[in-house]
């Protein structure tokens, strides 16, 4: 059996073994299956929404949904990303007082922050009410109400991943939330008659997020009550924020990279084309299904192996998972490139104008997959500040490129700006991880490891 065949078959052998590699393989398969099911469900719901709303109302809804995503990331203060590291580490070393304190402190802090940003967003919309349509303003106000609920849902999901409760963590956001939204849309549009409005769609989104949050809260309570029963809390907000705030910058820059193009298309062109481009942007994420699945289970495992100084096991984990990831990604990219026009037309008339933009975004996602879980490696090995600096520079570059290319090339320019930025930040992180940690998260052959330098 040659080396290529060995590489292809090794991830399959992990499924039937024992230890961290088997946990990764089984968790990644479960995450991938849930993610695929969720994407199919979400795709159907998005098609239903786009057809029920029409192009103009869909553009308003997609525009305000992008703002909800941006504000939710800022409001969480990076505690969702930090929870993957702290929960996994505290459980590994048996520090239950800090674990319990983190669970309580992170939820209280994130919820309070989200309420504050929600009020600020509502105030801005009130000041702009004479310059924007009533429908857009009302959609935005409902999004502000949804902000604290959305923040807690994302935080709960991340904490459950830290507990290695991968299936319920993903079911809440990947299955339950879009399913609830679909039921509500069918109830309002299918049986109520008439065209759905953007505010009604955002209200349905709020209800769906609330249902998913109720589910995660119940699962988290059951996951932690036995392990933490009778344990006193030890809260160290300052120490946690010292880690989470750089992660906030990192996450903020990441969300800006994913939403700047949509928002600037809305500002520089119009909300109709922002809605069209948003569909292409979300379709391109299908290519990243494998990356999402591997990253879901790999992040806490990277933290554990790094804390235990098991460097060689960690490198092997990264190499084989990255190669398996690329093998899984290539067919998805090819299939979407061939069927992209058909998929876009499902959303209604006018959406197929994003075909060129979709092809460009797919190319960027291929580079993203080939780089492996490089961002998680930086976060879980203590390089979150360097990661934040990289993403900050690239976010500024992305903003500049979008500002220059969108007026010249329309939505294709937005796609080119985003794909180029994706390539730059992946390459910069790969270089940094190798220089600082002597780890290679990509699909390329790993060199023999030397000593890691300081953070």
Draw up the topology in text.
Blueprint: H1 3-14, H2 20-75, H3 79-93, H4 96-127, H5 134-162, H6 166-190, H7 198-228, H8 237-268, H9 271-284, H10 289-307, H11 311-345, H12 355-370, H13 374-380, H14 384-409, H15 411-437
Description:
With 455 residues, the protein is mostly helical. The protein is 83% helix and 0% strand. The protein contains 15 helices and no strands. The relative contact order is 0.12. It is globular, with a radius of gyration of 22 Å. The protein has one domain. Helix 2 packs across helix 6, helix 2 packs across helix 7 and helix 2 crosses helix 10. The N terminus is likely disordered.
Give a quick summary of the entry:
The protein is mostly helical and 455 residues long. The protein has helices spanning 3-14, 20-75, 79-93, 96-127, 134-162, 166-190, 198-228, 237-268, 271-284, 289-307, 311-345, 355-370, 374-380, 384-409, 411-437.
List keywords for this structure.
455 residues; disordered N terminus; globular; mainly alpha; single chain
């Amino acid at each position: 059996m040659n080396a290529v065949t060995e590489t292809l078959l090794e991830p399959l052998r992990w499924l039937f073994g024992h230890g961290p590699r088997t946990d990764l393989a089984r968790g990644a398969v479960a995450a991938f299956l849930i993610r695929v099911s969720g994407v199919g469900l979400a795709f159907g719901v998005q098609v239903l929404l786009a057809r029920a709303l029409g192009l103009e109302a869909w553009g308003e809804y997609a525009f305000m949904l992008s703002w909800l995503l941006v504000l939710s990331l800022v409001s969480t203060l990076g505690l969702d990303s930090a929870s993957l590291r702290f929960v996994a580490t505290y459980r590994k070393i048996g520090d239950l007082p800090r674990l319990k304190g983190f669970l309580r402190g992170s939820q209280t802090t994130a919820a309070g922050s989200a309420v504050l940003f929600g009020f600020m967003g509502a105030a801005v919309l009130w000041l702009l009410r004479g310059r924007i349509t009533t429908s857009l303003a009302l959609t935005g106000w409902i999004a502000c109400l949804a902000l604290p609920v959305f923040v807690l849902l994302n935080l709960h999901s991340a904490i459950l991943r830290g507990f290695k409760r991968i299936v319920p963590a993903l079911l809440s956001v990947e299955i339950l939330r879009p399913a609830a939204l679909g039921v509500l849309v069918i109830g309002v549009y299918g049986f109520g008659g008439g065209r759905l409005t953007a505010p009604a769609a955002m209200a349905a989104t709020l209800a769906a997020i609330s249902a998913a949050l109720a589910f995660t809260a119940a699962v988290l309570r059951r996951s932690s009550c036995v392990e933490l029963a009778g344990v006193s809390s030890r809260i160290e907000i300052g120490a946690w924020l010292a880690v989470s705030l750089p992660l906030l910058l990192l996450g903020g820059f990441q969300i800006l990279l994913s939403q700047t193009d949509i928002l600037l298309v809305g500002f520089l062109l119009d909300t109709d084309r922002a809605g069209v481009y948003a569909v292409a942007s979300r379709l391109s994420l299908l290519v990243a299904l494998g990356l999402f699945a591997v990253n879901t289970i790999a992040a806490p495992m990277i933290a554990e192996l790094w804390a235990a100084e098991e460097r060689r096991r960690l490198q092997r984990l990264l190499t084989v998972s990255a190669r398996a990831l690329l093998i899984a990604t290539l067919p998805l990219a090819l299939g979407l490139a061939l069927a992209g026009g058909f998929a876009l037309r499902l959303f209604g008339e006018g959406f197929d104008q994003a075909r060129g933009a979709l092809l460009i975004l797919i190319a960027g996602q291929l580079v993203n997959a080939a780089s492996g879980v490089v961002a998680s490696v930086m976060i879980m090995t203590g390089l979150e500040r360097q990661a934040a600096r990289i993403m900050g520079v690239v976010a500024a570059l992305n903003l500049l490129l979008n500002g220059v290319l969108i007026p010249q090339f329309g939505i294709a320019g937005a796609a080119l700006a985003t794909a180029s930025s994706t390539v730059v930040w992946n390459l910069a992180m790969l270089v940094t991880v190798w220089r600082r940690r002597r780890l290679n998260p990509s699909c390329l052959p790993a060199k023999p490891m030397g000593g890691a330098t300081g953070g």
